[in-house]
């Protein structure tokens, strides 16, 4: 790192917004504690360097202030170090410091890093450099033969699991879905546990969701049949994966839950961060980040996981664009990707994703299903749509007043809907979101004329 | 078949048959599928998988509903970017449940929101649309925020409030410029809304018109007065409080004959606040007949002869005949007469004395607190600075030995009638003499930021409190006010207080550290306020 481009770009320092900083918080309590620390009061000797480092001393309850330093230039998201005893990550001091810096009121001046901050940065950068030079050297596959044997063993387990699951689905259909209503969660929890044992986490997650369907309101038999049929399809796909086209086989493997690695050639582009949101499933937090490549016109999704209540490590500032490489994973839809090297810190951009009409949006989803029948939704950007109340729900209506996409139920609660409606004010807007069989989930909105994207999640 | 509300799909009759077979079970219902060598459940699942993907792939957009009318344009300029981020930060600091504990050294951001909004409104900025939901949610929880928040939020907030029942309060209390209001100069539209509007819209219209053109508002109200319901008349009459003037007298005088007692009482109260009104003159005559000087004793004394009855004319002028439980009716009537009489009557009646001299006179037979209390209420109602000053007395005099204005609440109200500078000086004197423990209410009526003698008095008193060794949370109310009301420019003078001094011998354990923390928060908050102001000034 540290080429001339990098320095030029950061001298001015593109500061993040408070929202972007707060998105890093591991939980609501940290967000709150961090906002309280985002003011000059407890801070001293703060500063930031052109290389994307921010540091400061924060007065705590003890006599010695905490030393907080954040490296925001790291390709894998910001890195933090704080001398406080908190096990939250990032801690409230790191969040407060970034908020102070984001405030841009001169309380974090450009400066030379003090020694304690410099040491940490230098050693971090060195480690990163070593990692890079050693490349993605396959450290684990020292013994390819052993790895192959492990993979075979796992495939056998999954096959056994898939066969067992097929049997259970057949039993269910034989006695009727109505019996599932009495069975409740326990039946499916047990089956899901069997799939975990079979090392097929994708199957396990799908099976676990079946348990909630009978209590999900009217029309549940339809939804239950659909999901059972798709699990059956996935089982069959796995059992016949040898005979599938390679890209579909890759999709099946990834849907089953086998880890995939980025395989395609890295694509360098200016990637606009469209959305970042977390979903929690048990102890695991999954963060999804949508990127749009200004040159390539591609939309890709980055995934990052946080276990046991920790925030996922990867965090990108929504609304800014990064000059970076991403490497797509194998699979038919080619949505999933990994973030590679970042060549410059995030910067604002006027570019918006290529937009489609509501009819084109559902057509895109339909086409994508051809390659991946298990797809819940497809990322699209709608232009010139008006958020419109429709009975109990809302829809995004084409400005010509002909057709519309209903918003998905999960988009109707919370602040997301109202932020979308507020930005629109009854006028057409551009909306990025996920278009699927459950409706449209808006994730970012642009005012029609000009302006930065407003995150909705 | 319509699984997604509003989304249509290519229909398929066999899908429904598949669902029925699946629901009942293939043992009871043979699925309508080709088996091709598979068992019935597997064949059913195969067919269902094909149908599921087919149904999803064949989705079509729904028919568009009628979009809402666009929100009114907001012609105000947008916020500077730094101020926009600051607002987002203030709104993100929503008070959560169970935060508990002490406050630490960081500023209380939510408490700074009112100031931020007031400054933004002074500059006439438009609110960023994406922050309106958070702003409306904040105003929903705190009624004191609403006037400023809604003025800042502008026409789009009222537009949003029509779509979200949670924010309906924004329609009720839209200050002046709700988008529902017609241009106030357009008399035909005003007339139409007044005739046909909902009650809330009419209250808003009347208040807005009254703020702009008091006579026009009164005349508008007079056009329909006789047909309004009693509760509505009361609300409408109340809106005449703004911009009350002598021209209102004939209308108010007519309202004294209203069918509703509450309307009569409000009309009488408004008239008594007009010292030149006929009602005020009648009250003056009644009150004066009850109070006189007795020079026969060694010392000139005020003698009170409370009224013996409450006649029909008094009742018509708003005197409530029946006292609350536990009060004698004669003193009750006296209090009302003196309260409603113009204060100018007293110097004339009591030997040409100034208000100070009158207040200093002894009052015979324990009538002092009754009489002085009524004068206090009159001074507040008539916003009379000279009488307020006299009744407040010297700030250093102990409350119990002062004139009639014994209670702090009354003193706070009297202070409001004084000019801002004098108010600050009086409260500063009070704090220097009595410390902070009783100053909270008085500080609340002082203009912000605090004028210099007051700011110094508060800081000095806090410093003294710290040196006395008590814990800072005994003063948390004043500390919070100081954070919001001290002039940010004083922050530099406070740096000395944020260092940790030696613990005094008799201090409560750890108090010194907590004080330092509290002062750090004070200084931090003042700095933040200065920054907020600068951000809003930047164009």
Automatic annotation (TrEMBL), chain A:
Residues 66-102 form the SWIM-type domain. GO terms for molecular function: zinc ion binding. It holds the Pfam family SWIM. It comes from the Bacteria. Residues 124-152 are annotated as: Disordered. The keyword Zinc-finger applies. Residues 142-152 have a biased composition (Basic and acidic residues). Keywords: Metal-binding, Zinc, Zinc-finger. This is SWIM-type domain-containing protein. It comes from Streptomyces jeddahensis.
TrEMBL record, chain B:
This is Uncharacterized protein. Residues 67-81 have a biased composition (Pro residues). Residues 56-81 are annotated as: Disordered. InterPro entries: DUF5691. It comes from Streptomyces jeddahensis. The lineage of its organism: Bacteria, Bacillati, Actinomycetota, Actinomycetes, Kitasatosporales.
């Amino acid at each position: 790192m540290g080429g001339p481009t990098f320095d030029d770009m950061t001298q001015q320092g593109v500061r993040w917004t408070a929202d972007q900083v707060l998105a890093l918080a591991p939980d609501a309590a940290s967000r709150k504690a961090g906002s309280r620390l985002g003011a000059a009061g407890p801070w001293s000797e703060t500063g930031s360097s052109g290389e994307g480092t921010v540091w400061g001393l924060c007065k705590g309850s003890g006599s010695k202030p905490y030393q907080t330093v954040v490296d925001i230039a790291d390709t894998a998201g910001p890195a933090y170090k704080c001398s406080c005893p908190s096990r939250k990550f990032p801690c409230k001091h790191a969040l407060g410091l970034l908020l102070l810096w984001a405030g841009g009121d001169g309380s974090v001046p450009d400066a030379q890093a003090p020694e304690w901050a410099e040491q940490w940065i230098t050693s971090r950068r060195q480690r990163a450099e070593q990692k890079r030079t050693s490349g993605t050297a396959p450290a684990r596959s020292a013994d390819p033969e052993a790895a192959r044997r492990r993979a075979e063993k796992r495939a056998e387990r999954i096959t056994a699991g898939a066969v067992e699951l097929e049997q259970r689905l057949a039993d269910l259909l034989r006695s009727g879905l109505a019996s599932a209503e009495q069975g409740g969660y326990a039946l499916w929890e047990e089956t899901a546990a069997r799939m975990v044992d079979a090392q097929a986490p994708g199957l396990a997650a799908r099976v676990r969701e079946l348990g909630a369907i009978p209590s999900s309101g009217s029309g549940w038999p339809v939804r239950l049949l659909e999901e059972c049929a798709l699990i059956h399809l996935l089982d069959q796909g796995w059992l016949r994966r040898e005979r599938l086209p390679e890209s579909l086989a890759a999709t099946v493997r990834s849907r089953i839950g086998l880890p995939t690695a980025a395989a395609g050639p890295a694509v360098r582009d200016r990637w606009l961060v469209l959305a970042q949101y977390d979903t929690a499933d048990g102890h695991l937090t999954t963060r999804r980040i949508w990127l749009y490549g200004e040159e390539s016109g591609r939309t890709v999704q980055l995934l990052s996981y946080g276990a046991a209540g920790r925030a996922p490590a990867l965090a990108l500032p929504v609304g800014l664009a990064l000059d970076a490489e991403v490497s797509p994973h194998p699979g038919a839809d080619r949505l999933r990707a990994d973030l590679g090297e970042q060549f410059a810190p995030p910067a604002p951009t006027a570019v918006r994703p290529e937009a489609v009409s509501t009819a084109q949006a559902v057509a895109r989803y339909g086409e994508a299903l051809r390659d991946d029948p298990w797809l819940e939704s497809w990322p699209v950007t709608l232009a010139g749509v008006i958020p419109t109340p429709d009975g109990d729900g809302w829809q995004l209506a084409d400005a010509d007043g002909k057709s519309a996409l209903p918003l998905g139920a999960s988009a109707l609660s919370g602040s997301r809907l109202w932020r979308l409606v507020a930005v629109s004010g009854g006028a057409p807007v551009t909306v990025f979101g996920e278009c699927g069989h459950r409706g449209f989930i808006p994730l970012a909105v642009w005012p029609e004329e000009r302006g930065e994207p407003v995150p909705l999640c | 078949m319509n699984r997604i509300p509003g989304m249509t799909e290519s229909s398929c009759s066999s899908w429904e048959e598949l669902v029925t077979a699946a629901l009942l079970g293939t043992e009871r219902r043979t699925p309508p599928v080709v088996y091709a060598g598979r068992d019935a459940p597997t064949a059913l699942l195969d067919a269902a998988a094909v149908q599921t993907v087919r149904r999803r792939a064949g989705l079509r957009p729904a028919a568009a509903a009628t979009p809402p009318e666009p929100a009114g344009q907001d012609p105000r300029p947008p916020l500077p970017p730094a101020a926009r981020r600051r607002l987002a930060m203030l709104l993100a600091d929503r008070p959560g449940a169970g935060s508990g504990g002490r406050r630490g050294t960081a500023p209380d951001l939510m408490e700074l929101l009112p100031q931020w909004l007031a400054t933004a409104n002074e500059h006439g900025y438009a609110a960023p649309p994406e922050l309106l939901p958070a702003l409306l949610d904040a105003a929903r929880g705190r009624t004191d925020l609403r006037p400023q928040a809604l003025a800042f939020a502008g026409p789009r907030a009222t537009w949003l409030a029509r779509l979200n029942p949670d924010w309906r309060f924004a329609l009720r209390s839209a200050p002046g410029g709700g988008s529902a209001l017609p241009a106030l100069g357009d008399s035909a539209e005003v007339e139409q809304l007044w005739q046909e509007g909902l009650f809330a819209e009419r209250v808003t219209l009347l208040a807005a018109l009254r703020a702009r053109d008091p006579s026009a508002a009164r005349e508008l109200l007079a056009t329909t007065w006789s047909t309004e319901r009693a509760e509505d008349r009361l609300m409408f009459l109340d809106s005449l409080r703004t911009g009350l003037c002598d021209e209102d007298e004939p209308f108010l005088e007519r309202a004294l004959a209203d069918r509703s007692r509450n309307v009569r009482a409000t009309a009488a109260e408004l008239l008594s606040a007009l010292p030149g009104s006929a009602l005020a003159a009648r009250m003056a005559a009644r009150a004066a007949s009850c109070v006189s000087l007795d020079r026969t004793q060694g010392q000139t004394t005020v003698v009170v002869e409370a009224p013996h009855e409450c006649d029909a004319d008094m009742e018509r002028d708003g005197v409530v005949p029946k006292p609350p439980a536990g009060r004698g009716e004669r003193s009750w009537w006296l209090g009302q007469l003196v309260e409603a009489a113009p204060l100018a009557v007293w110097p004339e009646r009591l030997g040409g004395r100034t208000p100070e001299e009158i207040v200093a006179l002894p009052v015979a037979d324990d009538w002092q607190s009754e009489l002085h209390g009524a004068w206090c209420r009159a001074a507040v109602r008539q916003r009379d600075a000279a009488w307020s000053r006299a009744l407040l007395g010297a700030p250093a005099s102990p409350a119990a030995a002062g004139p009639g204005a014994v209670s702090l609440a009354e003193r706070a109200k009297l202070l409001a009638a004084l000019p801002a500078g004098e108010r600050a000086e009086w409260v500063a004197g009070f704090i220097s003499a009595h410390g902070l423990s009783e100053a909270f209410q008085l500080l609340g009526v002082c203009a912000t930021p605090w004028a210099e003698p007051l700011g110094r008095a508060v800081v000095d008193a806090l410093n003294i409190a710290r040196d006395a060794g008590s814990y800072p949370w005994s003063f948390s109310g004043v500390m919070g006010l100081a954070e919001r009301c001290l002039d940010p420019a004083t922050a530099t003078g406070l740096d000395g207080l944020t260092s940790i001094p030696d613990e005094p011998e008799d201090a409560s354990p750890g108090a010194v550290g907590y004080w330092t923390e509290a002062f750090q928060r004070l200084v931090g908050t003042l700095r933040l306020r200065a920054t907020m102001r600068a951000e809003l000034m930047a164009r």
